[in-house]
Design goal:
The structure holds two protein chains of two kinds. Helices cover 0% and strands 60% of the residues of chain A. By secondary structure, chain A is an all-beta fold. Chain A is globular and about 40 Å long. Chain B has no helices and eleven strands. The chains are: A mainly beta, B mainly beta. At the A-B interface, strand 4, strand 5, strand 9 and strand 10 of A face strand 5 and strand 10 of B.
């Protein structure tokens, strides 16, 4: 079993829909990161959080330390949100989930 | 401010050839690392460095060498390329030793070994 599990692996949505991507982890962490990877492009950090909730534009990230679970929400999704979203946890090093491929259709 | 710069973006090698993937950052970050990304797997750590002159192995170091002669540069060397090293490679940097810091990634290098 991977130390970081993401679900779903693939997600297709219609423009405007509310999207949730989940991340569960099994190790002790000091922080959790959400990253975005566009096709053919690099990886960009969206959030780093160790408790509670953070919001940036249409993106919201939450974490429940007791349950070892985090969610990334996208409100009013848009085709430009289509990307791979990666959850990573900071322990002694960064450990990454496999990623969630999101496709938002117009 | 360029951030993390990786070159080349694409490379095709023949089995047995050697090459160096370049990585440079201009943020004065102490911590730099190399990852490989393969289908169906999360990014895996190859090598990392906590400062100039200090490097260490990650999860999958075999077949790769690194050095860190300056704070800015952290090249990754493939000594004798093998098809199993076909992958997308990412360099990343962050402040150290604080673990709760944002990681900055390069644009990636797509390497194919034939």
């Amino acid at each position: 079993k991977n130390e970081v599990e993401q679900s779903p692996q693939n997600l297709t949505a219609q423009e405007g829909e509310f999207i949730t991507i989940n991340c569960s982890y099994s190790v002790g962490i000091s922080a959790l990161h959400w990253l975005q990877q566009h096709p053919g492009g690099g990886i960009v950090s969206l959030f780093m959080l160790s408790s509670g909730k953070k919001k940036h534009g249409r993106l919201i990230a939450t974490i429940n330390i007791q349950e070892k679970h985090s969610s990334l929400h996208i409100t009013a999704s848009h085709p430009r949100d289509s990307a791979v979203y990666i959850c990573a946890v900071s322990g002694s090093r960064l450990t990454f989930g496999e990623g969630t491929q999101l496709t938002v259709n117009p | 401010n360029a951030g993390v710069t990786q070159t080349p973006k694409f490379q095709v090698l023949k089995t047995g050839q050697s090459m160096t993937l370049q990585c440079a950052q201009d943020m004065n970050h102490e911590y730099m690392s190399w990852y490989r990304q393969d289908p169906g797997m999360g990014l895996r750590l190859i090598h990392y460095s906590v400062g100039a002159g200090i490097t260490d192995q990650g999860e999958v170091p075999n077949g790769y060498n690194v050095s860190r002669s300056t704070t800015e540069d952290f090249p990754l060397r493939l000594l004798s390329a093998a098809p199993s090293q076909t992958s997308v490679y990412f360099c990343a940097s962050s402040y150290f030793p604080t673990p709760n810091t944002e990681a900055f990634f390069g644009q990636g290098t797509r390497l194919t070994v034939v």
